[in-house]
Amino acid sequence: MKFFHKLQILFLSIVVLLSVIITMLLIYPDQLQPKEPEIFYCGNALRANGENHIAGERLFKDNCKSCHRIHQDAVGPALSGVTKRRSKEWLYAFIEDPQAMIKKRDTAAVNLYMKYNKFEMMSFKTLSTADIDSILVYIELSDL
């Protein structure tokens, strides 16, 4: 009789434990997923799963592709390797307001303006630095 009583307690303990585990899985499913490693790009945390690459591709196609290609010149210059040629600060300023940089007589901005038939690049004041970073990640990953 004592053995049967201990077996009942063990069985009930297992049932309670399984109930708690199942309840936790239903309530907090995200907690059991492994965290994605983050990399830092120009001060912004980027997800290693490619979400920034996907966002960057969408932003590039929506805002840049009409004038730029990654590996060849078009209306504007090819963008492959742009992060090696220009600082992030310069890229942010130029993408946000290229006309202002030309008016300030920034050498690189003026040279681009002259090289591409005095075609003025549009200002993209609505793009955040995170948006620009995503575009730059997309361009850099397209170089691989």
H and E order? HEEHHHHHH
The average pLDDT is 84
- The tally of strands reads 2
Order of strands in the sheet with most strands: 1-2
Q: Would you give the CATH topology of the largest domain?
A: Cytochrome Bc1 Complex, Chain D, domain 2
**Structural class of the helix and strand makeup?**
mainly alpha
Whole-number count of domains: 2
Largest beta-sheet characterization? 2 strands, antiparallel
Describe the structure.
The chain is mostly helical and 144 residues long. The chain folds into two domains: 31 residues; 105 residues, Cytochrome c-like domain (Cytochrome Bc1 Complex, Chain D, domain 2, Orthogonal Bundle), CATH 1.10.760. The chain has seven helices and two strands; from the N terminus they run H-E-E-H-H-H-H-H-H. It has a two-stranded antiparallel sheet with strand order 1-2. Helix 2 crosses helix 7. The chain is rod-shaped and about 95 Å long.
Give descriptors for this structure.
144 residues; mainly alpha; Cytochrome Bc1 Complex, Chain D, domain 2; rod-shaped
Quick structural gist:
With 144 residues, the chain is mainly alpha-helical. It has helices at 2-27, 51-63, 82-85, 88-96, 98-103, 107-115, 129-142, and strands spanning 38-41, 44-47.
Architecture blueprint of SSEs:
Elements: H1 2-27, E1 38-41, E2 44-47, H2 51-63, H3 82-85, H4 88-96, H5 98-103, H6 107-115, H7 129-142
